[in-house]
Amino acid sequence: MLNNRFFSTLFKILTLSLLAVPGLAFAEYGLNLPEGVTPISRDIYGLHMTIFWVCVGIAVLVFGVMIYSMINHRKSKGAVASNFHESTTIELVWTIVPLLILIIIAVPATRVLIDLEDTSKADMTVKITGYQWKWQYEYIDAEGEGINFFSNLAQKSRDGIKNAAIRSSDENYLQDVDKRLVLPVDTRVRFLMTSNDVIHSWWIRDFGVKQDANPGFINDAWAYIEKEGVYRGKCTELCGKDHGFMPIVVEVVSKAAYAKWVADEKAAAAAAAASGDREWSMDELMTQGAKVYSTNCAACHGVTGAGVPGAFPAMTGSPIVVDADKIPAHIDIIINGKSGTAMQAFGKQLSDSDIAAVVTYERNAFGNNTGEIVQPAEIKSAR
Amino acid sequence: MATTTTEIEADIHAHDDHNHGPEPGLMRWVKTTNHKDIGYLYMWFAFSMLLIGGAMAMVIRLELLMPGLQYVEPQFFNQMTTMHGLIMVFGAIMPAFVGLANIMIPPMIGGPDMALPRMNNWSFWILPFAGAMLLSTMFMEGGGPAFGWTFYAPLSTTFAPDSTDFFIFAIHMLGFSSIMGAINIIATVMNLRASGMKLMDMPLFVWTWFITAFLLIAAMPVLAGAVTMMLTDRNFGTSFFDAAGGGDPVMFQHIFWFFGHPEVYIMILPAFGIVSQIIPTFARKPLFGYSSMVYATASIAILSFVVWAHHMFLTGMPVAGQMYFMYATILISVPTGVKVFNWVTTMWRGSMSFEIPMMWAVAFVILFTIGGLSGLMLGIVPADIQYHDTYFVVAHFHYVLVTGALFSIIAGVFYWLPKWCGNMFNEKLATIHFWWAVISVNVLFFPMHFLGLAGMPRRIPDYSLQFADFNWIASIGGFAFGLSFILLAYIVVDCIRNGKPVKEARVWESAKGLEWTLPTPAPYHTFTEEPPRELILKESSHSAH
Ligand code: HEM
Ligand SMILES: [Cu+2]
After folding, report:
1. How many alpha carbons fall within 13 Å on the CB side of residue B73?
2. Among candidates A204, A153, A151, A159, which has minimal Cα distance to A174?
3. CA gap B77, B59 in Å, rounded
4. What is the residue with the minimal CA distance to atom 23 of ligand 1?
5. Which of B235, B282, B462 is the best substitution to test chain A (most A C-beta atoms within 10 A)?
6. Does the pTM exceed 0.80?
């Protein structure tokens, strides 16, 4: 990888000389694409480097001639202008040669393209759904079938957005989630992408996978990951206010560890379903509700429930939140959302106990103090 | 006003039948049908929009100076990126090019004025209202458009603030203005060109604008269609872009980019024209390959309608579609490259001097080429998977639009300003300004290539820590580049007010073209008598005489 080292050293020297500013950490630069951990990402990397060097070649040639000419063909040096201004031969040459070079690049590009669009023969399939502003992962076949969860920005990152102390102690600031997508190594995984609201785009650079998630349509992509590890990515299609705050984290583990994870997930799902059947105390509901509110609701309605005037309604004092006869409406808007607005249907995303908790929380936090408690059983019957 | 009075008198003596000069007072600018007056209005409007759009860019760079949210909220940040893009494209670059066309096309083709002067007045005066309406959305409840200058549905329909309807109206008005401007240019070139000037005698700036005008007429109605469909989706229950009603959000992108890709060439073809005027002047050598430049421009214009989906490689297109758009994109980069080769060959074995306009033209050629090369990389579909919607794309289009389109406008202003106002600008200050701007613009945009490759998505108000250093560098470059425009404004105003008067008609001794046969400063009415063919041939900047 001579190219790489040369490239990055050169730039480090350049930037360092540019910036003799103390206090800046010049630790990792990330000047180039990494090769990644899938056959596709390596092919892409190869294409990227080829076309990059072709561009460098063209640039050196064009700028070289230009600079030579600017130095030597100056009036101040007594240069006398010649008068040539037409040559069909030259023009044909410099049209046809670049065209040939580009055709030569187009051949491997086409091969990689066909390969990466061939999503057949997958060992397992994960359906990825974009939401404003989180991801849902559903394992729809193979051993993980039925596992289904949401992945939100990690609380620590959320806290760091406006707090420099938390931020600087969080090495994965804005690239950590509360629950990772877990995948087995050396497996051909097919991803199905779609969206619940606006267009999102799911990107893990190390896999060479980036694909738009369009509402109402399903796209696909695939990856055969050859190395265990934690891989991070971002949503890359502007999807509204918190577009910058919906990271992606994929943990790739051995097949054995994956089997154990699947078993744990299934057990946890069964336990969660059971928790909906018992009575919850006010304290329990409030604690859980605060958690659910901060991951799902605070982005729009505000941490203090003040909302954003004109865009997102406040929770404090809102009739649907404080009027005792509006409890069913309150539950309904959370389960079914309000169509034509950013208020999503959370019914599929949250368990009975989570919805009960957040309804209770909203009715008692932010100075609402209604004293009303809503139990998971009420949610179950409202569904 | 002293010059104006002498101008009027000169006018009266020269030709008694044509004895009206500009109306005194402010009403001159409201009622004017004079191509230069209207052109100057366009230029000042574009410059004010440049400052407003630039101020928004400063907000963006300020927020991105460091990780974390320090100054603005995400929703406002998104309004800034959206408005910045819209204002720069529709308020600054396009009007500035129309302004230059207005001022320069009649003198370059030996004509008296624009062919449709009253429509000309109207097409300008729509702009301030459209611009004001667009800006006013930011003060409406729910805020202004925050869905990016590409306003993809459904973020711009179902999920958009109420002010979006005003945004749609503003886009319609801007479109009207552009189409009228384009019709006027075509009518002028066809009808008011001196009868001794054949099409293949026209200066390249006239050619590129002539072709651009057809692009505008073909592309703007498509944009109007897109926003009208948005309007009905939002208000009248249609579902063009809503899958729930049988529509398709990706169709929005097809329509938008069918306008959008020609649009990017609308913003670069006139730039090619300006640079093709300046380089022969200061290389003291005719433009190399004039006719192939004309053909290359025409083929770029035609091809620009068949490559649109290279902006949409990741929307889930069939693989055959991806292949076709990859090949077409590669194809369009060839005539673009040929232009660069032509400029370099024009310089080759010339007798060059580096006056301010030439410095800007050279900077244009080098930096635009960098943008063109990254465009080539973006056209390779598998590689675009990694580049798409990252800062790599942001770097690409700022190299072609800022150091391309905008730099050519600055080059053109310095080239023709002495002719317009009769004064020379302060060349010392202009040299300082040049280096300041060229260095800072690269500090601003070059690191964005690395940010993109390192994985930073575009349009995010906050980022993870590994992107901190390059963002910091880019922001510092951004502030410096922003400041350079204050100096530019000073240089221009100082030139108009107290610049050293220029007496020669041919401001740059080696310049060729009919515009340089007019007295300096340019008379209020351009050619009142048709220049003869001998003069036209003698002044041709692309054939040897
Ligand atoms: C050599 C010629 C060029 C090629 C091959 C090329 C190719 C491309 C490609 C493939 C993209 C899409 C990248 C992506 O979103 O992933 C793109 C984006 C863009 N290009 Fe170019 N380009 C060229 C020249 C230009 C010129 C001359 C301009 C304008 C003056 C321009 C303006 C833009 C803009 C504004 C975008 C981004 C639009 C957006 O998503 O906001 N390009 N270019
Ligand atoms: Cu394009």
Report:
1. 10
2. A153
3. 8
4. B375
5. B462
6. yes
- CB count within 10 Å of CB B512 equals 23
CA B221 – CA B18 distance, rounded (Å)? 39
- DSSP readout, B397-447? HHHHIIIIIIHHHHHHHHHHHHHHHSEE--HHHHHHHHHHHHHHHHHHHHH
- Distance (Å) of CA A60 to CA A54, A55, A65, A67, A78: 10, 9, 8, 10, 27
Record the tokens describing residue A304, joined without a space: 């203090």
Which pLDDT score, from 0 to 100, does residue B36 have?
A: 94
Chain B interface disruption, residue of A7, A73, A193, most B CBs within 10 A: A73
Q: Are B72 and B461 in contact (CB under 8 A)?
A: yes
- To the nearest whole Å, the CA of A66 is away from the closest chain B CA by 6
Which of B351, B390, B470 is closest, CB to CB, to A75? B351
Q: How far apart are CA B472 and CA B61, in angstroms?
A: 9
CA angle at residue B421 from B420 to B423, to 5 degrees?
Answer: 120
C-alpha to C-alpha distance for A274 and A269, rounded to whole angstroms: 9
| pLDDT for residue B200 | 93
Q: Count of A–B CB contacts within 8 Å?
A: 301
Question: How far A314 CA lies from chain B's nearest CA (Å)?
Answer: 14
Residue A29 has pLDDT above 70, yes or no: no
Question: Helix, strand, coil shares of chain B as percentages rounded to 5?
Answer: 70, 0, 30
| Selection from A231, A242, A239 nearest residue A161 by Cα | A242
ipTM of the complex: 0.89
**Per-residue confidence band for B8, with pLDDT thresholds at 50, 70 and 90:** very low
Tens digit of each residue's pLDDT (9 = 90 or more) over B254-306: 999 999 999 999 999 999 999 999 999 999 999 999 999 999 999 999 999 99
pLDDT at B194 over 80: yes
B464 to A208: CB separation less than 8 angstroms, yes or no: no
Write the DSSP symbol of residue B355.
-
Nearest CA-CA partner of B349 in A59, A74, A60, A61: A74
Nearest to B57 by CA among B538, B438, B484, B540: B484
Query: Percentage of residues in chain B with pLDDT exceeding 70?
Result: 96
The pLDDT assigned to A142 comes to 86
**Residue B443 pLDDT greater than 50, yes or no:** yes
d(CA B266, CA B404): 12
Residue A309's pLDDT is: 78
- Bridge-based pairing of strands A219-224 and A188-195 is antiparallel
Interface of A with B in 166-205 (CB under 8 A): 167, 171-175, 197-199, 201, 203, 205
Sheet holding A181-184, edge to edge: A181-184, A248-253, A229-235, A200-204, A209-213
> What Å distances lie between residue A223 and A36, A40, A123, CA to CA?
11, 8, 11
State pLDDT tens for residues A45-95. 999 999 999 999 999 999 999 999 999 999 988 888 888 888 889 999 999
Query: If DSSP codes are grouped into helix, strand and coil, which group holds residue B47?
Result: helix
